[in-house]
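This part of the workshop introduces the protein records we will be handling. A learned vocabulary of local backbone shapes supplies the integers on the structure line. Getting from the letters to the tokens is the skill we practise here. As an example, a complete record with its sequence and its structure tokens follows.
=====
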Amino acid sequence: MKKVKYLNNRDLLAQIHKSKNTFCSFVDKDHHQYDIILPSLEKINIRTVAEAKRNRAARLAKANHEAAVEAAGKKIPAKEFDIDYRKMEKTDLIFRIMTFEHIPEDLTRKKTKKSVADSHVKVNFPPFQHWKFDEKDNLICVGKSHWVGGMENGYFDGKCGKATNELARMWMKLCERYATRGNVRGYTYNDEMKGQAILQLAQIGLQFDESKSNNPFAYYTAAVTNSFVRIINIEKRNQNIRDDILEMNGMNPSWTRQNADRDNGDTAPRGEKKKS
């Protein structure tokens, strides 16, 4: 098993992209890599086409540079691999359009509909389509998420893919490292907190939206933090119930409750107060 030494946004984004591709169908295997993300087809214009060309040129230049450095085994100036985006062909660009158009409707899923997603079948990440220009300058659909088969004769399938093994290992590594923090590592239920955090990442890990942010590390860290805090609050609530039952039966509660009483100026054990 490959060991994950450290986590960074670049590797996380790459694995998220690979994982989402397993839920998608493309006309050609090269159509999976998008150059720009837009909310609708109407946003495709001269400005966004130029931006897509710049993004594609920068991505290809970076890939060529990394391949050359790996082959040569030494540092090579990145400027030698710069690509003029103005020489990029318009027909090579891939536009990712965020849309629910190909997702079946489900008007009974939620009574109060606050967004477009509430009127469609629930999916594990924001759906999208990939579009490109053909030789006649017409936009054609070349890819759909949560889809199996051709663009015209295929069908919707929200469970056709899965997260990559590498992304799953990254989720586990993130939870393990968070569990070693000084403010949580001393709890006896540390393993339970890690398990809850891993479960949470498995449920919402692919919901990260690349159109809104390029920082999945912060997104995942927030989810892990919430999972740890949730278990801590549940355990504290259970402990308070146990302490209340002990006090009702004239017994001393936990040291945590007793220390809290002393901090409040009450030196007598609660069990003795009940008897007096």
In short: The longest helix spans residues 216-248. The longest strand covers residues 139-145. The chain has two domains: 25-156, 165-275.
